[in-house]
Amino acid sequence: MKYNLIKILPLFLGGILFSQNTQDSLQFKNIADEMLMNGTAYENLRDLTQNIGHRLSGSAAYEKATDWAVAKLKEAGADKVWKEEVMVPVWERGKESLQIKSANGKWRSLRMTSLGNSEGTKGKDVEAEIVFVKNKADFDKLSDDAIKGKIIFFNYAFNQKFINTGQAYGDASIYRRAAASWAGKRGAKAVIIRSLSSALDDVPHTGMMRYDENDTAKIPAVAIGPKSADELEKTLKTEKVFAKLNSNCTMRSDKLSYSVIGEITGHKDQSVIVAGSHLDSWDVGEGAQDDGAGIVQSIEILRSFKALGLKNNHTIRVVCFANEENGLRGGMQYAKNVKEKNEKHVFAVESDGGGFTPRGFGLVMTPEKRKQVQSWRALFLPYGVHNFEYEYAGADIGPLQEFGVPLAELSPDSQRYFDIHHSDEDTFDKVNRRELLLGATVMGQLIYMIDKNW
């Protein structure tokens, strides 16, 4: 009997692809079953947050966290674990307070937090009239006389129309980063900003600000919660308000610290696949969602691959980066070392969006690689992951882009993240065990596919 090869070939190839997809689907289930049933990420996060807590770069708590990470990577079964030296900036907060009063009123305290890397008042009271502006355009319209000697209050709110709250964060974050520099150049005494939060509560949020290199006046910068910000704006529309700020925050000299790295050796070659996150956090809350969640998810990938006996082709490396929050020194030092060692990196993925339910991955790579990853969407759909359209990746792995390394970032549901981000609210009790482990699961599944196909 003769067969028409033109008709048979598609069926033959389709059978091969079906078989491959079935095998991948079964391996996806194995990874999910292992993590959801036996995963240690949640208890590891409990240990990190409850026994160490927040861990700003340069602090004693951060150094304790590096020892913790070494121990956890060894427990997970890493073939090799080491600390990578990195010089980090040291910022100290100290005592701080903010009081306001109307022209004929009494001083009352406002809940506040200094912005990270800000200079303070050296423990002295700085008192001045508050000048309200809604945005940079309003600020630019003010005369120098209206700004000089005043405390400028920027009440720029999260844009609630953005469904992805990360977009709103990006839109508003310029005020946290640059407002002090804008106002300082024109003679202001300090700035107050509305916290970068999607919530309408009264929780102040910190986060990194920057002075320009040519700033001669490094004025203090503080944040207040959304509720206080709206109340202050309302009052300022009808009467004068004065502020009294006292803070002790300042930058110290850089110090030697460490990123922590663990890996399982590749069976085919030693080119590297990175699962990364940052070990440091701000000095408020417990650093649970930002980024304790990412740390324990990354370690969980390594543990699960070992537990399942997966024979990874490439070396799978977990990097617990130092100093993401106020300097990004860990990520930059890691990339520098990669270049000096001439290490080949196949792929890097980061988790730095919290331990919420995973929805997709941001992808920064060539169009060909992007299409290949997107072709795996059907495998991820049973785990609730469907969005592979975003084009962004984690800050820590970002410096690897210089070497053409394909990058990705886990994209969890974003709706609650910025309610707690960089604040006292970032605590262990806000993390759901199953959501956390599902994030680790899909990261592990993506690494499995990359390792197999690249």
Ranges where pLDDT stays below 50 over 5 or more residues in a row are 1-17
Q: DSSP helix count?
A: 13
Structural class: alpha/beta
Oligomer: single chain
Assign a percent range to the helix content. Answer: 25-40%
> What is the name of the CATH architecture of the largest domain?
3-Layer(aba) Sandwich
CATH fold group of the largest domain: Aminopeptidase
**How do the strands of the widest beta sheet line up side by side?**
3-2-9-5-6-7-8-4
CATH class of the largest domain: Alpha Beta
Q: In this structure, how is the largest beta sheet organized? A: 8 strands, mixed
The secondary-structure element order is HHHEEEEEHHEHEEHEEEHEHEEHHEHH
Kindly report how far apart the N and C termini lie. 40 Å
What name goes with the CATH superfamily of the largest domain?
Answer: Zn peptidases
Q: Beta-sheet strand percentage?
A: 15-25%
Characterize the structure shown:
Helices cover 39% and strands 22% of the residues. With 454 residues, the chain is an alpha/beta fold. The protein folds into two domains: 28-91 and 253-453, Zn peptidases (Aminopeptidase, 3-Layer(aba) Sandwich); 94-248, 3-Layer(bba) Sandwich (Glucose Oxidase, domain 1). α1 packs across α8, α1 (5-38) runs antiparallel to α13 (433-453) and α3 packs parallel to α8. An eight-stranded mixed beta sheet has the order 3-2-9-5-6-7-8-4, sandwiched between helices.
